[in-house]
Structure prediction request, 410 residues.
Amino acid sequence: MRSAIVLGAGMAGVGAALHLQGRGWSVALVDRQAPGLATSYGNVGLIQSEAVEPFAMPRDLSTLWAIATGRSNDVHYDPGALLHHLGPLVRYWWHSAPRRHARISQAYATLIAQAAPEHAGLIAAAGAEHLVRREGFRVLYRAVRDMDRAVTDAERLRARYGVRSCAMSPEALGAAEPVLKQTGAGAVHWQDPWSIRDPGGLVSAYADLFRQRGGTVRSGEAVSLTHMARGWSVRTDDGPIEAEAAVVALGPWSPELLRPLGYRFPMVRKRGYHRHWRAAQTLSAPLMDAAYGYCLAPMTKGLRVVTGAELARPDADHSPVQLERAEAAARDLLDLGAPIENRPWLGTRPCMPDMLPVVGEATRHPGLWLHFGHGHQGFTLGPATGRLLAELMSGETPLVHSEPFRPGRY
Ligand SMILES: Cc1cc2nc3c(=O)[nH]c(=O)nc-3n(C[C@H](O)[C@H](O)[C@H](O)COP(=O)(O)OP(=O)(O)OC[C@H]3O[C@@H](n4cnc5c(N)ncnc54)[C@H](O)[C@@H]3O)c2cc1C
Prediction:
């Protein structure tokens, strides 16, 4: 039987572990904490069928000016930190040029198309249906001009990719979400995405399924990964594990693990925050407030307020700027109630400069497989790219053309 160690038990690692197991591999999933407690816990919980085009770097002068002058809440940056991000950001800018972004989107859309079907099978097998809402999500626009632009763009996505959405008047939005005190210029309702009431809980349910099917989950430090004559070994709390293959699925921590092996993967680390609130009445589906760049996601734990991207120094502490602005803007829309946590959650979107995840074998280490860099949609994509990786490792014909995702492009 073929054997693999999967390092990292977020959505990417658990997705890969399940697909390898399904192909007859003996798999050990290793993480320093329980499954689904890092980035895959703290997100908005959207399974984004509508995200057929990855998130490009803004290139129009008015958006850049708003970011540079601190007027936009979508992005916040510490000027002193920009030097740390410069290399990946320059490459991100280059790949975000409209012609390149259009080419990248073609590859990305093929993966996104597989995302919900892959989750559907796992949700059913894991008995996790109670965590899933299938009502899509809405983006509220406060200004008519922004709403009009959004509707035009939604029509473009429908024409090009068949993505379904509908424009809602302020009255229709108010009727759908009676809890809202104001409804601005209305909303675009993306109808196909699903939302998860407890994103970490879904990863944990998938990890339980992996165990039930005979998989091993171990507590261990990925940095103990050692290349041996016939494979790979890692130390766990229950002793060393050896396998012929190792998969690096450590989300934003992946590039650091690979550095000592001579790999330099550039990553745009976009931090994000969330905090839960005890709103007496909540929303029926997640809502993004476009003007203030944050999302409101109704979760089992409370109403989760989630921020946009922050570029900070590598070891910078929490900075409250975006979350405080988001919470103030959210209070215009509904009664938030009291906060559940004093200290907000902080995580990092692991974004590659070309906006595509890294899926494939490391160029100089046979048997070392890479599965990270899912950026803004890793919760959506983990099971689909996990399948792609398992197919490549098993020598099967991959479900999508795998070339755009190959590690050797860096
Ligand atoms: C604010 C925010 C909102 C988001 N919203 C969405 C959304 O709505 N939909 C969507 O699709 N995506 C969303 N994303 C992106 C998504 O959350 C990530 O792309 C995804 O969770 C990455 O999954 P992962 O498994 O690669 O990484 P993680 O979930 O971070 O998993 C990596 C694992 O590696 C482990 N690990 C790290 N270092 C070591 C080590 N040295 N030894 C052992 N274990 C280690 C960690 O403990 C962790 O469990 C959002 C991200 C953020 C930050």
